[in-house]
Amino acid sequence: MIPRRRLDLRDGRVDMSHGAGGRAMADLIDGLFRPALANPFLDQGNDQACVPVPPGSRMVMTTDSYVVSPLFFPGGDIGSLSVHGTINDLAMAGARPLYLCAGFVIEEGFPLADLQRIATSMGRAAAEAGVPVVTGDTKVVQRGKADGVFVTTTGVGAVPDGLMLSGDRARPGDVVLVSGSMGDHGVAIMSSRENLEFETAIVSDAASLHGLVAAMVAAAGPHLRTLRDPTRGGLAATLNELARQSGVGFRIEEAAIPVKAQVAAACELLGLDPLFVANEGKLVAVVAPAGVTAVLGAMRADPLGRDAAVIGRVVADDQRFVQMTTRFGGGRIVDWLSGEQLPRIC
Amino acid sequence: MKYVDEYRDAGLARGLAAVIAQEARRDYAFMEFCGGHTHAISRYGLADLLPASVRLIHGPGCPVCVLPVGRVDDAIRLASNPAVTLCTYADMMRVPGSAGASLQKAKAAGADVRMVYSSLDAVRIAETEPRREVVFFAIGFETTTPPTAIALRQAIAKGLHNFSVFCNHVLTPVAMRAILDAPAVALDGFIGPAHVSTVIGSAAYQDFAEVYRKPVVIAGFEPLDVMQAVLMLVRQVNDGRCMVENQYIRAVTEQGNRTAQALCDAVFEIRDAFEWRGLGLVPRSALRLRPEYAPFDAEQRFEVRTIPAADNPACACPDILRGAKNPTDCKLFGTACTPETPVGACMVSSEGACAAHWTYGRFRDRAAA
Question: Could you tell me the pLDDT band of residue B348, with boundaries at 50, 70 and 90?
């Protein structure tokens, strides 16, 4: 559709009229969002999308809000992040992600050029993942009532009948794997915070993991118990959540957990522990022993699981401790994160 | 990671552990003064490597933990002044003041509290927000004192009149002396501070060896540093020696950092007395700004009148800070008091004995039970 009025995408800013439901809003949608996110469902221009449901499957739904600061960071931005993060929440159920919808809350005065950059990045990430943004919503709030832009994406996917992945299915004896290095996303964000800038070559690992998950399911579907992406709170939070859900404990080996040297160094400098730092393109898998070889092989064959590793196992523990043998040889707990370590990481 | 991994080598640790076990011929009680050591001991699980005959007693060297409730209340009152932006190191945010108040709760209620990584961040805020009264909540031992002095000098050089310092800096050797003057436990020696000693130098501990007849081994904060310091202490005790030895030669010299010392002398003077949680009122144990810096002293600018306030009577923090009790001896530990709902300051900072044991070591309580 041809915009009725050209948006000044170079120097223009979002104003209150862009969210008021009038012509300016239509111009914003037609001139900025629609070209960036184009697909047949969105192009129908309805307030909702009517989509086909695949037979022989169950629907999976999830939603996530993104408030990351800064909006643009090494390896991504809020637009691509809001695609990857929500797709990953679907994928962790073993689902094939099908559709996304996106809600934007934009602060008055936000540069249209930045908004276009974000929408374009979102569209590119969605196209690469093969998951279209089929409908959406735009709101504008007064200056000072938001911080640039907040994005909420909702995802719908389908999981084939018979496949059941859930956080309550870890059993003593199961094996714990991670798909790659821990802490990249959080450190990339920290390195670009205005009061903390430090030079590092680390980029966010933000990526959509449904392809990796599909390969794992194909290799050893019935042996997969649980998948989860260790986002806020990092590996530590994820393992503690799973311990609580399944009523078990974990024993992990620090030396087996992949952490990039630069991430380790940045964490050392900032007094952080990489196990608590967020990831946006990694997963934790709990696998029955019989499936470990097949799952690990499938993970390592995928570029997003190249550095996959076995890091420990599930144990019986009525106190649900996540215990770790340190690289140094002693034992410790890997506890829940207390307080906030890195606010607004996603 | 170069220059770090070398000090966390499991093979060397096993070797040192074997030598310590071989040479230990009695029970030993060593106090690690610093929270940094407490943290390293818990985080790397040193208890699993040391023989049962070596007991490490956590000392009071956690800057957040030793600050009395009254001073936390002062900071909360300062932050609640609508004109004030209070800049603080993150650890102070959740420390409980009177009646369950904290800077974090004050912030949620509208106070302008900012977490900073560096004292210079506070100066930058004062510069960019000239209409705000920026108060830097200065806490810590000799390690964090020079950065406060530098921030103050920088603010003056920039002509910033909206910057002031709420000074709570305290002195390590004085606190060590207080512990030895009123011993809660029989100590065989000290693992001496790491970062503090880079500033004050190893000579500052000579009294403890000569007058108090206690071995002191200054040690770095890496786990192998601690293991090696334990071995050096065991050997001093076995030989009947009382000396200040320096394991941390890669950073600590005999005289310390003279430049930093001179800067601090120029900016700060010793208070007549200061209250410590756990140690009570200790004479000449803390610093305040010299009179010529009065315009930048938040205590004067905002007429801070500290009202002494009691700790929660059930909280064992005061005894834990003196080494008289272990975290598990406190009936609040892990019940009413956890890192999410801290009752005492020792449960807040990662350098606090209770937080370290809860976060890293509480699985051992089950084995002991």
Answer: confident
**Any chain B CB within 8 A of the CB of A265?**
yes
Domain boundaries, chain B: 27-61+172-246, 65-170+256-301, 317-368
Are the Cβ atoms of A195 and B366 closer than 8 angstroms? Answer: no
Q: Model confidence at A271, in pLDDT bands (50, 70, 90)?
A: confident
Query: Looking at residue A338, what is its pLDDT?
Result: 77
Of 3.40.50.11740, 3.90.180.10, 3.90.930.12, 3.20.20.70, which CATH number belongs to B65-170+256-301?
3.40.50.11740
CATH assignment, B27-61+172-246? 3.40.50.11750
Helix axes A210-220, A292-300, angle to 10 degrees: 150
Q: Indicate the pairing of strand B28-34 with strand A149-160.
A: unpaired
- Rounded (to 5) percent helix, strand, coil in chain A: 35, 25, 40
Residue A79 C-alpha, separation from nearest chain B C-alpha, in angstroms: 28
Contact yes or no for B187/B30 (Cβ under 8 A): yes
Inform me whether the pLDDT recorded for A197 exceeds 70.
no
3-state class percentages of chain B: helix first, strand second, coil last, to nearest 5: 45, 20, 35
ipTM over 0.90: no
